[in-house]
Amino acid sequence: MVRERSRRVIESVRRAIHADASDRTATQALPIIDDKTAVRVIDLAMRVAEVMLSVGASAKEVVLAALRITRAYGLGTVHVDVTFNSVTVSDHRHGDEWPITLMRVVRSAVPDHSKLQRLQALVRDVESGLDLGEARVRFHQIRRMPFRYRPAMVILSQALLAVGVGAMFGASWVILTVTFVAALGVALTQAGLAKLQVPLFFSQIAGAFVLTALTVVTAMLGRAGIEPFVDVRATIVVSSGIVLMLAGLAVVGAAQDAIDGFSLTAGGRILELTVQTLGVVLGIVVGLELARATGVGMQPPSEPLPLGGLAGQFAGAVVVAVAVAVFNGAGMRIIVVSAVLGIIAWAGFAGASATGLEQAPASFVGALVASVIGALFAARLHVPSVAVTTAAILPLVPGAAVFRGLLGLVESGGETEHILFATSSLITAGMVGIALAAGATLGLFIGSPLGRTLGGLSGIRRTAARPTAGGSTVRMPTVR
What we know:
- The chain is mainly alpha-helical.
- Helix content is about 70%, strand content about 5%.
- Strands 1-2-3 form a three-stranded antiparallel β-sheet, with helices on one face.
- Strand 2 (about 85-90) and strand 3 (about 100-105) form a beta hairpin.
């Protein structure tokens, strides 16, 4: 008896420490799907993944969408590989047969959050039992959809974005008018170059140069005593334009891909982000150097640009968030959510700043709060989380610090004090950018599973509230 008890104790300890191979299922029931149907399923998953990546989804969202489609149609052993400019989907179902592998190249990346929202709805419908043939038809309809807004509306929204930034700094109507005209010039310049298929790097240089040139002309008119340009603050005009040109950069997506482990995609997006930012820097520096060479240089500011009243700050944040949502092709639901999250992000930033935090950690707090709440909104309202998060954190982009640093370097005259102040401004801008990306990504990391959990609990409550009599049937997806 004692020996038997000792043996049981030892066996219990062994099982607590070691995994038991006998507990695992040796075989797995796999659905029988012919190669022709498997190719159609894989092709649909690959095309959906390609379009999602091109319109702004993160690499992780792309992979999950492709896997959800293939599993819904009975392919449970699919591998999805996403890089910066390609998507590969492979299915090796049987050990003795050749795998089925398809690959597509992502040729362009233009944010279109309305199309992204429709693609996510398509994936949900596929999981709910949508027929394969109908899913393919719906996908092709979504892919052929034109951009939601006309080019004139996109250009107008870009100009209004700059106006929103100016309102956050308490700009007068004169400064806001000059800001609108300068931003309109930048948007028209970049739109014209885009039609000529000029690379975005040179388009960024041209837009920044036009912005700087218009600002210098305004400063000249003010020095000449010409009303109403006397009181125009050039720093606000250029800072607003910088935020406009940085608005389309995939900062959140690049940081999210890096944290999720998609190194190639993150590296490509970060390199693209760096090159486009350098384009803005070069355009501004060239414009400032030409202005200095012709004797119309601007005096570098000795202190950071102060913000305006609290009401103006929140109003400007809403305008910026709405404008970003519009020129990213968002629908009304995303626009409303973006406006609300813009207020939340700025409230988080203002509250953190009131406690004595510097700009970078306060920006992290604002981005984190908006991102967590945005992920919850996205789960409940079925909108892309990256869409609402990107629009919400744009008011926190440090355009004023970037311009202050560049202007200080150009106009320093070799003075150590000015060089140190300019360098400090540029370092601050870089830290704020990193803080925004980190806060937004961490917020999505926290909020997305929380939103799914809350959605699952509400679904359980709804099911419990409506009991059904008898048995229930589950409609399986039809594969043709």
